[in-house]
């Protein structure tokens, strides 16, 4: 029996490391990793610096492309840093 529910990745998304990653998940991970104060230092936008809440920040990021892009860039840099850290630890062992 074939699985007709499988969705293929569009060709324009094959090399996109953010394909399938939700903005909400990125924001959650960045908040857990940095906290609001540090996140506000990395990305200087009011929704991270003035009485930040998850809901209001997510709403702002969804309607503000330039801010969303900054979050995506920080998320990718953070992932790269995690991978480099793990690789370094594995090489030591």
From TrEMBL:
Alphabetized Gene3D superfamilies for the sequence: SAP domain
InterPro entries attached to this UniProt entry: DNA-binding_VF530-like, SAP_dom_sf
Name used for this protein in its record: VF530 family protein
Organism of provenance: Reichenbachiella agarivorans
């Amino acid at each position: 029996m074939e699985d007709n529910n499988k969705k293929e990745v569009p060709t324009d998304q094959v090399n996109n490391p953010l394909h399938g990653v939700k903005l909400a998940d990125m924001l959650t991970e960045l908040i857990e990793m940095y906290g609001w104060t540090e996140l506000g230092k990395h990305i200087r936008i009011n929704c991270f610096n003035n009485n930040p809440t998850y809901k209001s920040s997510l709403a702002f990021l969804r309607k503000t492309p330039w801010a969303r892009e900054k979050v995506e860039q920080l998320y990718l840099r953070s992932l790269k840093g995690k991978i480099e850290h793990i690789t370094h630890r594995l090489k030591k062992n």
